[in-house]
């Protein structure tokens, strides 16, 4: 496998998705390798169907382990349909969320256990971890206030959870970041959007100087 795989992580309201839209063409301008941008849950037809079920605000009865398994199932299909073919074609894969989201949200947030959720995801991802993960650090207070401002009426099932849930997600992310210093780079996502994009760009170029070397 010759491409590179970068995931983007962070609590709700971290601004990842918006930052990625700006980041993508900036990164593409720096390399001859094609860049593919995708997201989880979703990113392929079957996985997008699973996304609809998981995030549906009417699915109040969903058991936490069912939720964890559905995220892992969606991830498996995304890996097979999009991530692995992209890497095999020597392209660059950017994924808006990957396995760390499940460990933080289902393991920590839903209190299933970080180890337990990591185990079911090991089965799904079969050793295919990202080469680099950019973690967008934002406190639950700031993240949730952004979401309420942007789309209060359309908040999904996870975003609607209590602040205690979001605090557990945040604490779990902190632990994941601490345990994976080589893979995960943290950027301060409470800064101005332009600075966040610039920091993410710098972190990626620094990690792969031979790939993002155009225009120097
Ligand atoms: P998004 O807002 O980044 O599109 O993600 C949708 C929601 O799903 C968000 O609240 C985070 C949550 N999520 C999990 O709980 N576990 C996961 O494994 C993933 C990928 C997302």
Automatic annotation (TrEMBL):
Gene3D superfamilies: P-loop containing nucleotide triphosphate hydrolases. CDD domains: TMPK. Its EC number is 2.7.4.9. Pfam families: Thymidylate_kin. It catalyses: dTMP + ATP = dTDP + ADP. Residues 8-199 form the Thymidylate kinase-like domain. Phosphorylation of dTMP to form dTDP in both de novo and salvage pathways of dTTP synthesis. Belongs to the thymidylate kinase family. This is Thymidylate kinase. It comes from Companilactobacillus huachuanensis.
